[in-house]
Amino acid sequence: MTTPSTIGGLRQKLSFTNISAIYILIAVLVVFSLWIPNRFLQIGVWRSLLDAESLTSLVALSALIPLVCGALNLAIGTQVGFAAILSAVFLANAKLPIAIQFPLVIIIGAAIGLIIGLLITRVRIDPIIATLGMSSVLLAGMSWVSNSHQILFATDQPDFTKIATTPIFGITIPVFILIAVALVTWFVMERTPVGRRMYAAGYNPESARLAGVNVARLQIGSLVAGGAIAGLAGLLLTSRLNAGDPTVGPSFLLPALTAVFLGSTQFKGGRFNVWGTIISLYVLAVGIKGLQLAGMPSWVNDLFYGLALLFAVGLSRWERSGKRLGAVRRVTTFRSKSKGD
Known about the structure:
By secondary structure, this protein is mostly helical. The chain has one domain: ABC transporter involved in vitamin B12 uptake, BtuC, CATH 1.10.3470. 75% of the residues lie in helices and 2% in strands. It is built from 16 helices and 4 strands. The strands form 2 sheets. A two-stranded antiparallel sheet has the order 1-4. Strand 2 and strand 3 (171-172) form a beta hairpin. The longest helix has 27 residues, at 215-241.
């Protein structure tokens, strides 16, 4: 027998504020299926979309993990770009084998995250300032290492170029890597004591400290994990492009942050979460792909992501009521309380 509480819970789960991305996706699919069906409903379009956004989804996860602990990382795009350049340098110039080059780049990515974490927690620099400063340093490093030019290696390392392009059952390897990373991230955040402490640190750092949670250690660890995933994304980016390109990394920042903040309004009532982030990213990507196929100019991409980010932040702030705090609010709360320590 259906009770009023069951109906109320179901209504809440199906409400627009809880799964707005699903309703937006349905609307986008209907609009473009009627507008440009011959181009939009091609199976090749959907396969390429799934593959193209897998790297952006990895970058979004690398930004999500620190945000759960209250740290906004604005250097994530340049971390990806720096890892991509290092990967190309190790392959083309140092001639390192893939078995050494691959883990080395991931370790360096984690080390960059460690440096950012120490700047925030030990040197007490505001996360926005620390990550903006590190972003500038990494941009300079990318230009210096690459001499502001692409680093080509495709003919020297054919096996490496296959990593991001080889299909398995019609789906490329980065998609499977994304699924694996997402599952691990989800499990740690949602099913382990570490994940509960991470959410506690992001929700109310002062109360978490009083309860015995080492907020600084969690924040450092989250930035290290995010840096490692950014390094992985940079490796796959280089494999896909068959070159190290010093210009492409920073472009990941806006879509990644947009997906994370929009994802915080999905499924978890204003809480950063893995599946909300990934679904939101693909919903945005479908909308942009439809506009591209309809012949819209390229600048529509930035406009679309910018408006979506503003919408996501606004919705996250609006969602908080009573004891439930929106994800954006929790980030600002963490920063203000950290300054007062």
